[in-house]
Design goal:
584 residues; disordered C terminus; two-stranded antiparallel ribbon; 32 helices; mainly alpha; 68% helix
Amino acid sequence: MTGTNRVDVERICVLLAGIPLALELAAARLRVVTPAGLLSWLERPLEVLTAGPSDGPHHGRSLRDAIGWSYDLLTQEERQVFTACGTFIGGFTLDALTAVTDLPHPREQLIRLVEYSLVQSSDLLHEQRRGSESRWFLLEPIREFATERLKIAEDDTLRDRHATYFLHLAEGAERDVERLTPDWQARLQVEEANLSEALAWFMDRHRSREALRLVQALAPYWEGADQLQVELEWARRALALPGSHEEPKLRADVLCTRAYCEQDLQRLDTTAETLEEAAALYRRLGDEAGETHALRILASVHSGLDDFEQALSLLGQLAARFEAAGDAYLLSETLHNTAVVYMRMGQSDRARPYLERAQPLAEQTGYRNGVAFILMLRVWAGFLDGVRMMPVDLVREAWNAAQQLQMPGLSAMMLLVLASYAREAGLDRFAARLFGLAEAVRAPLGKPWTVCFIPQVRRLETELPALLGRRYDMERAAGARLDLQGLQPEIEAWLEGKSGRTGVIKPSVDSKGDLTAREQEVLRCLVQGASDKRIAQLLTISPGTVSKHVTNMLGKLGLHNRVELARWAAQNGMDGSESETELT
């Protein structure tokens, strides 16, 4: 093994799950192909890992032979359960296995399959999340063998039970207003591969009703995970099925799901036509709630097309309807969307009252996503309206709300907000890191920046390179390499370092006098988020010496911990921007 092929070799070992015979057979193939080439072959390991060297410990046996020998020793019921295990991708629970096998108590057969090492327990390999169900899985070569048994049987019963089980699971997921509860979001995330397999099964067999039902059931999961591109692709495929027109209610619902994704991804070429079809279907069915849902999305589409007059007219009608009906949730959403239209029009001063009215309504209904977005937009509307002294309490509340939801799109917008205020405070290197992380979080979503953010994005892309020179690319790249947890301490220290509501840093030249030059160097690194070990590497001292410097500074300044020390540094202009030390 060399430094060049080490990564490929490690991936081969992981793919083959460390099975000794599989590794021996793979090693034999390296006589004719490189590790990178072998890795590309191993999508179907049983076809590649056939006869091994005759002088090896397994005497020329293939991996299929070894698994087949174990399979032949199973009882009929054990074989039935083993084959059913092959329908799952990424593991399964006992409830799922029971549904697929249609046996009343498959636990005994499962226990024996684990004892024979044909099935593995996930709980033994990974720490089980409290309250989660136990899971089992098949190593990939063994799952391939089980899948072959399914094909040989030429019976779709097990696969159909698998797809039906996951359809019912998704439809039974509990919602928190229009999103899933955190527990159900996490549960469906674990089953994502099985859910995709179920969708593919229904699609491939033109089972239009089930495909449409499952797409609609998974929409809140995809939206909670910021997987709108995935959602849009499945919606388009389901709507293209020949039988989808025979299910008018389901078709209308999925048309709205498709339109919602298109407007959020700003792919608006055919969205209005999609919504017109949905609204027509709802009217034909006498479904007033469905038609209202289509109009809610249509208002956002008009806004995205810069047809602000039509957007505001629709939103005004909807707001009056929801207020008369006493629907606090939908009224909150409509006020929120009205504020966004005004922000897109460059009239942030008119947006702020709508946001301030929307927030208590969202809080009243427990609409956590809405509250988080409203808080972020309140901060941003103020910034666009010329408020350059950061409202720290509101920013902290918005940041905390965004982190609790773990929605990448919202986190990216909050990072851009923070980068903008950091730039205003003269913390240009910090702003570049925040901006780099914001772009890194946003890019995989495939979503462009919302229109009301684009001018500030362009401003940062122009101003920061001019101010930082070559440092800009380094700082931005450093931010992009981090994750939210990696930059969190620096963000929290910065927010904690603000005083009152102004968020203004007030340097005090004389206050640095009691600190030695070395202590000031350590402090500048510390405030930029470096660990003791990293500071030691940068300053060529030991981690123990770094710790002593920190202790000395706390004593000299009468402070109690590193958070207070970071706050003091921020208040006294020691944010690291003057330092020549590169934290890269």
